[in-house]
Write a structure and sequence with these properties.
Largest sheet: 8 strands, mixed
Number of strands: 10
Strand content: 5-15%
Shape: globular
Radius of gyration: 27 Å
Oligomer: single chain
Structural class: alpha/beta
Distance between the termini: 74 Å
Helix content: 40-55%
Order of helices and strands: HEHHEHHEHHEHHEEHHEHEHHHHEE
Strand order of the largest sheet: 3-4-2-1-5-7-8-6
Length: about 350
């Protein structure tokens, strides 16, 4: 039974949206944050490990700066994230301290998970924190990146964290009851989907756009996140954060909201990283549009004029031009060509011996 699978999950990832954290933009909902801390404490008493992925930094910054609408300029979004992240961390620390729990703030980007070395460092750090009984609170580092603010969402980050720590369940708390066959705000005949298969293409057609003006994601991002989480065998539950004890009930195996079941064979840990990094799980190579000889993911998008100015490549290009100058005999062996051309007549000599290294020519 699916209930038994969720009840037996020992490692959970809980993601809360911006609309819940900020009470639809009215400011940080302290009562809701305290209630989540109480539920996570109760789940931990059952011997389970919990990682919290929290949105709300930009929304909290908007409230502190007095902005009523989400800005569109990237630098304004980054400024709001920088202001809001401070208040968000303080509130979570105070809420969990009431139950004797320590928290750790971790800011990640997709590039951190795309780089193999940083991916392993993040995994070992999170594993150590969970073993120490600390509650990791993860958010995107919106202050220094732009792609995540413009296109990304914490639903995707929650799924990637589930892959990272090999969690058995991903719980996404939102302001909606669950996934409907259509938008219930527009279609009164829409019905709630209690259970479906993660990765089903028909689910993406049912999901709509952004759920509110405060958050950036919507049901479509949650459906895609469930598909990502299924790579490591994690089941995804989409439920309302305004229900009574949704985290405790889902951890106990109760049916709340929509459950998207993972029925795919979990990928190996390294193949999971390859999918996160945008590489093929079979070959391990990036797409042809981003393929470059051994470069780090951050430099994949650099202009070609900036990528070809390495000393070794300049030397190779110079050597090829010299070996294939017009008028040079090409039918001789390569060693004979090099022996003849490495000492041109105008080469400077001192006391009959050449004092300059051959590789300069």
């Amino acid at each position: 039974m699916i209930k038994t699978r969720l009840a037996n999950a020992k490692r959970l990832v809980v993601k809360v949206g911006s609309a819940l954290v900020t009470n639809n933009g009215a400011g940080l909902d302290l009562a809701a944050i305290d209630d989540w801390a109480r539920q996570i404490h109760a789940v931990r008493q059952q011997g389970k490990q919990v990682v919290l992925v929290s949105s709300g930094a930009i929304a909290c910054g908007m409230q502190r700066l007095g902005w009523s609408k989400r800005p569109k300029l990237v630098h304004e979004l980054q400024a709001a994230a920088a202001v809001g992240q401070m208040g968000l961390a303080q509130v979570y620390e105070g809420a969990f301290a009431k139950y004797g729990l320590h928290t750790a703030q971790i800011l990640l980007t997709h590039d951190d998970l795309a780089d193999r070395k940083r991916y392993l460092n993040a995994r070992s750090t999170l594993t150590t924190l969970l073993e120490l009984g600390v509650i990791p609170i993860i958010n995107e580092n919106d202050t220094v990146v732009t792609d995540e603010i413009k296109f990304g969402d914490n639903d995707t980050l929650g799924a990637l964290v589930a892959n990272l720590i090999e969690a058995e369940a991903l719980i996404i708390l939102t302001d909606q009851i669950g996934l409907y066959t259509a938008d219930p705000r527009k279609d009164p005949n829409a019905t709630l989907i209690a259970e479906a298969t993660a990765g089903d293409e028909s689910l993406e057609a049912m999901a709509g756009g952004a759920g509110s003006s405060i958050g950036k994601g919507g049901m479509i991002t949650k459906v895609i996140a469930a598909k990502r989480a299924a790579r490591s065998g994690a089941h995804t539950a989409i439920a309302s954060g305004r229900e009574i004890d949704p985290i405790i009930r889902l951890a106990n195996g109760e049916s709340v909201g929509t459950l998207l079941v993972s029925q795919t064979q979990p990928l190996a840990a390294r193949k999971q990283w390859k999918t996160v990094a945008g590489r093929s799980p079979a070959t391990g190579r990036p797409p042809a549009s981003r393929r470059w000889c051994g470069q780090r993911p951050e430099s994949w998008q650099e202009p070609a004029a900036d990528r070809r100015h390495s000393g070794r490549r300049r030397f190779r290009a110079w050597r090829c031009r010299r070996l294939h100058q017009p008028g040079r005999p090409r039918n001789r062996p390569r060693t004979e060509q090099l022996r003849q051309w490495r000492k041109p007549p105008d080469r400077p000599q001192i006391n009959g011996r050449d004092r300059r290294p051959a590789w300069l020519y």
